[in-house]
Amino acid sequence: MKNHQPIFELDSFSFSFDKHDEPSLNNVSFSLYAEEVTLLLGASGSGKSTLTLCLNGLYPEAIDGFTSGDLLYKGRSISSYPKGVINQEIGIVFQDPESQFCMVRVEDELAFVLENLSIPRSQMKQRIEHVLDIVGLSQYKKHNIHQLSGGQKQKVALASILLMDPQYLILDEPTANLDPISSIEFIETIMRIQKERRFGLLVIEHEIDDWETYAHRLIALNKKGEILLDSTPKEGFINHLQELRSNRIRVPKRYVNREIARPPSSEKENKEVIVNLKNIQFNYKNKQILNELSFLIKKGRFCAIVGENGAGKSTLLQLIAKLNKPVSGSIDFLNIPLSDWHENELYKKIGYVFQNPEHQFINQTVYDEVCFGMKLSGYSRVETERMAHQLLTDFDLLSDKWKNPFSLSGGQKRRLSVATMLHSTPDLLLFDEPTFGQDAYTISQFMRIVMQLNEKGTTIVFVTHDMDLVDSYCNHVLVMQEGNIVYNGTPKELWRRTELLERARLRIPYRLRSMNEEMTV
């Protein structure tokens, strides 16, 4: 694999956003090769995404950052290439796919890419249909991009990059928004295309269980943006396991004896109902998204809402939070119609964490963002400062307290969005993919805080694709499929419903998969 000239060479390369700040990347040296599949690991904020933008040539030019050392592409300094050359040859699917789109419809977005490549119009239709077939979006050719689910948008972003026939492809958290089965299909698709087209591939991921077997190489960064490890995956995970974990890096579950948290017992649960939905229907532009849903959630439960991409999970969560209104049906919160609640009173009792954290930022600094809800709730200055300091410490954001929220890494933004909701003990907390893009330590800290709130009586509702999280913490789960509730019960019973799991594109958790593997050996 390494008998050829490296496609990238980094020698003592450093990058910082400001001359007076600590570098995001610190004196890193390594090479990347064509046809090689490399996993890039690191805790949130370790510089992984920054590195990819340097490799793509967007940094430092796009933000006036500062570099030292050498970064070569095909033997030449990356800064010596004419504008646009590197961006066509080095493709990136970003953590937030929406940041890449220029057009409204899927077909137009892909045509826009081909126009920039000067592809004749007579060839465009065939190329667009071919790439949509590759990523499994053929039926969405005429759809508006903003109507797609998060996972579907990510596939459109991938299709756009594949149209450029890149020589090197970088994937930044590529499966984080995908349901479990779509995630496996996505990985298998990428690896098939990589083998056929023989481009180099760099994958940034926290959940690497399904990527590990395909990777030739493992590069890990520590919290200071330095090279922690450069080895084969097997050698790294076997011989450097504790070093990786001490640097807050998630490792494949098969290398660790994973402790499973014990979900709160549903036998002693509160019989009072906190949320009651009756015959809820929701449409968007004449398309039915939710179909006559009826269910209730009892106080004190830890409930997961799961299902395939586009099943209506986020839409349902937004209706419960009164961020959207149903076309028909009714929602009661604490035995009062949701429509009767005044917003100021409702938001003292319900906290909501968006799927895209940037949608809830309204202040200029991380500190002010965390303090905002406390000030609205009438907390004293002393109490506000004490709680803000504790939350920033718990979510590893204390050193970033005076930064602009929009300047944070994807993982840091997610942590901040969660922290802003945890200053009080509301009756109901709603989370849309809260663990997406987070390192092992942050998830552990976050779940500790959430479980403490749950033990104090707060009802927790997660929209998630993480079946291990559901298995470890939840005592109630709703499965959605095509806008319908197809299962309403305990996780334990759900794992027995093999046919249902298959239809809903879910997987049993790793704990049970490993037990099944042991029984078949």
TrEMBL record:
Keyword field contains tRNA-binding: no
Membrane topology of this protein: Peripheral membrane protein
Lineage per the UniProt record: Bacteria, Bacillati, Bacillota, Bacilli, Bacillales
UniProt-listed Pfam families: ABC_tran
Positions of the ABC transporter domain: 8-249, 275-507
Localization annotation: Cell membrane
Species of the source: Cytobacillus stercorigallinarum
Protein name (Swiss-Prot/TrEMBL): Energy-coupling factor ABC transporter ATP-binding protein
Record keywords, A-Z: ATP-binding, Cell membrane, Membrane, Nucleotide-binding, Translocase, Transport
